[in-house]
Amino acid sequence: MTCKEIEDLLPGMIDGAIADADKKRIEAHLESCASCRKAFADLRKTDEQVKSLEEVEPPPWLKTRVMARVREEAEQKEGFLRRFFYPLHVKVPIQALATVLIAVVAWNVYKTGEPEFRQMAPPPAAVQEAPKAQAPPEPGPAEGPAKKDESPATREKKSFAPPPAQVKEPVPQRAATVREETMADAEKPVERLRDAKRPAEPPKDEGAWRGTGAARPGEAGRALEAPAQAQDQQQKLKATKAPVGAVAKEAGKQEARPAASPMMSAAVTPRPDLEATLRVRAPEAAASEVETILKQASAQAVERQAREGRVILTARIQTEHLEALRERLKSLGPVQESVHVAPRPGASLTIRIEIRPD
Amino acid sequence: MTDDEDVKAVLLCQKGDVDAFEILVERHQKRMLNVAYRMLGDYEEACDVVQEAFLAAYRAIRSFRREAKFSTWLYGIVVNHARNRIKQAQSRSRHETRSIDDPVELKEGRLQCEVSDCGESAVEQLEKKEIEARVQECIGALETEYREVLVLRDIQGFSYDEIGELLNLPDGTVKSRLFRARAAMKDCLVKVLGDWP
Known about the structure:
The complex is a heterodimer of chains A (358) and B (197).
Chain A: H1 3-13, H2 20-32, H3 34-51, H4 60-84, H5 92-119, H6 129-132, H7 152-160, H8 164-167, H9 170-184, H10 189-197, H11 203-213, H12 220-240, H13 244-256, H14 262-267, E1 274-280, H15 283-296, E2 300-307, E3 310-318, H16 322-332, E4 335-339, E5 348-357
Parallel strand pairs in A: 1-5
Antiparallel strand pairs in A: 1-4, 2-3, 3-5
Chain B: H1 3-14, H2 19-40, H3 43-60, H4 70-92, H5 120-125, H6 128-141, H7 144-155, H8 160-167, H9 171-193
């Protein structure tokens, strides 16, 4: 080891920050080299001088000043927030932001679901909504949680436009539930409301209306049939595979039609007691035949509607003519029936015949 | 006071308790001031730097994660501030560049005398404070990177690991800088003080 190399390592000897092997070699060298010994001695003295430097004491005002500046800093932060929210001492910016956000979301939802809003009929039987609160909650298609992987737009659409098979699904369930409720307890609000409305209803609707929910003797059994009817209705709807809009529109029309009374039309949209779907090759021609058959069966209030290749006929018919009507319809083509209210002898019932292309 | 107490105070500060910061100031102000003072060689400036460093620490305390010791983090801040102050001073008086070979200007206005000019009697006349002043001048004559390791290790007694963490330097670099700083200090003091006892 040369003196230069030793001198480079000597500072490490001060606090033993060199390897043991180097330390031994340096010690051996120092024994024989006077200049390196002096250099090491100077290093030690330097170290002593450096270490003997007196510590300075902080001035008493240092902490006070530091804390004053720190508090000022903290208050500035707080002060900024306070100034930001100062006007009227309410969280104006947050509220403004929230309002804008809500407006944007609402506009977006409206724009996204506008067609569905138009197609969707007003909730059936607003009057019936009252007992709905008492009825068990229905798992409506719009109430299900949206899947996580769906985009917001899809979720919005789904929530306002349920798939075709589900559009009408809740209707029979709700009707059945309401019927169950009303039949089980004739004193419930719906019934009372209906009683209150009855004088305003025209006589021709009374039968239909009462047929859907009045507590008549012998009708309690119908409540038990309701789920089965609902299932039947659902199957029928699935079979038609009608687009969402068409089904929704039809539902709206159908529910709005029997509302002869303005009060009734605003409040309730009764459903026909019997629905039949007739499949024929030429719906228009068959519809004319069916109209004739209805007239022959002394049907009243016969109405005809043509839509997208289908023809829908609604009418009121006496129960005794029902069997004959069935036979005549069957002679025209395959008929699917959904009986919502069992026919009673001597009473009339509303029927809806949908004539579809085969 | 232990590091745990530091941690408690830091957690309180992070939750917005300003008063808890006073505990940290109380605990660390002296050492921070001494680090800054030995690096800068000016008491008033050192006080200034310490204030700035504490304020910076307070502003950044929410971002402090307990991956390092709080004291290491805090002294790193003061060293950075002192280093920046030195840079500013150097840029202000660039024409007055110094090196350890340049004469050391003493506060009293006396210039360093060459070893040959300084007799023993002169060294003897220097009082302890004057020797200290020259030691401080020699420290101030070191390049900043050497100065900071010398101050941290030989004056403040930080370990090599702590210095490496504090300055974000590898252990080998810390050692080589320290060895060179010590050697330069020795040369400077020999020049300033001659053969002092």
